[in-house]
Amino acid sequence: MKKYFLLVLFLPLFVFAQGKQNYYPDPHRFDREIENFIHWDEKNSFPENAVLFIGSSSIRMWKTRNYFPEYKVINRGFGGSHISDILFFFDDVVKKYNPGKIVFYAGDNDIAAGKSPEVVFKDFKNFVKLVHDSLGNIEIYYLPIKPSISRWSFWEKMNETNLLIKKYCEENSSLFYVDVAVPMLNENGKPKKDIFIKDGLHLNEKGYEIWTKILKKFLN
User: Among residues of the chain, what percentage have pLDDT more than 70?
Assistant: First the structure.
């Protein structure tokens, strides 16, 4: 695997942070998973001008080929990842595919790990800049951090992050805020219990059907 220098540009707090708040975890914890992507790509072709799904476990567990049969899709979600990890491995999980569109879900783990909404927002803007500098002004579809049962205590900060990014998307013609979060709440403003698997964090089939239906309206 080639060396990565993006860390110097985008992650000024990495390693140097003391304590939990705004701490950037070591991206090398994903080395094996990224190597698996690389080995797969060496043995298999991938579609050109595809819709690239990138992000954390909510992307990884989404059976995107089944839910989006009408599109050429590439799924490069890796569970537990922060936005900073996606930036670090950008060349191998985003740039190499030269996608036509990008669907992005990350930030969930970032907030749960103690990062502030402002830091997560900054990381997302760095991702957008890197995409547009590397691949041109392609469309990026941001899926907001989801309200979940197991991380409900973080929802205030997660929602604050979403609102910052929503405003940013509204000011940029190539960015789309795909609101899959509000439909996940019941009439009492709490996460619907029947859309999650047992861990109360990850979506079940019913949950992904909600996401898919809403996202398709944007992609179409």
Answer: 91
- For residue 14, the SS3 value is coil
Write the CA distances from 204 to 151, 153, 172, 175, 199, integer angstroms: 16, 21, 32, 27, 10
User: What pLDDT, in 10s, does the model give residues 147-174?
Assistant: 999 999 999 999 999 999 999 999 999 9
Q: Give the tokens for residue 116.
A: 């502030």
Q: What is the distance between the alpha carbons of residues 159 and 63, in angstroms, rounded to a whole number?
A: 26
Q: How far is Cα 104 from Cα 90, in angstroms, rounded to an integer?
A: 13
Contact 98, 138 (CB under 8 A): no
Specify the residue for token string 């899959």.
180
Which two tokens mark 33? 């998973």
Sign of the dihedral defined by the CA atoms of residues 92, 147, 24, 12, in that order: positive
Whose tokens are 């749960």? That residue is 112
Structure tokens at 81: 């990842």
* Residue in this structure with the two tokens 């707090």, named with its chain if needed: 13
- CATH number attached to the domain at 49-219: 3.40.50.1110
